[in-house]
Amino acid sequence: MQEEIKIEFQNEDETVLEYEEITQRLDRLDEKAEFVRAEVAQRTGRKIGRDVGILYGVLAALILASLFFILINYFS
């Protein structure tokens, strides 16, 4: 009445080797994903840096132009 349940296990060495192979592949994929994330972050940082530099340049130009017009009106 009671049926026997047979469980077949693979060779332990093969299982360990498969596990190590899968782990190595996952590590390589993780390194590639990390590299891509770093590249995207670097490009974003460069864009933000460029925009901030443009704003500082415009601000400096406005201050110099304002000083120029104030000095012209003061001496004329």
UniProtKB/TrEMBL annotation:
It catalyses: 5-methyl-5,6,7,8-tetrahydromethanopterin + coenzyme M + 2 Na(+)(in) = 5,6,7,8-tetrahydromethanopterin + methyl-coenzyme M + 2 Na(+)(out). Pathway: One-carbon metabolism; methanogenesis from CO(2); methyl-coenzyme M from 5,10-methylene-5,6,7,8-tetrahydromethanopterin: step 2/2. It is found in: Cell membrane. GO terms for biological process: methanogenesis, from carbon dioxide; methylation; one-carbon metabolic process. Residues 12-39 form a coiled coil. Part of a complex that catalyzes the formation of methyl-coenzyme M and tetrahydromethanopterin from coenzyme M and methyl-tetrahydromethanopterin. This is an energy-conserving, sodium-ion translocating step. This is Tetrahydromethanopterin S-methyltransferase subunit G. The gene is mtrG.
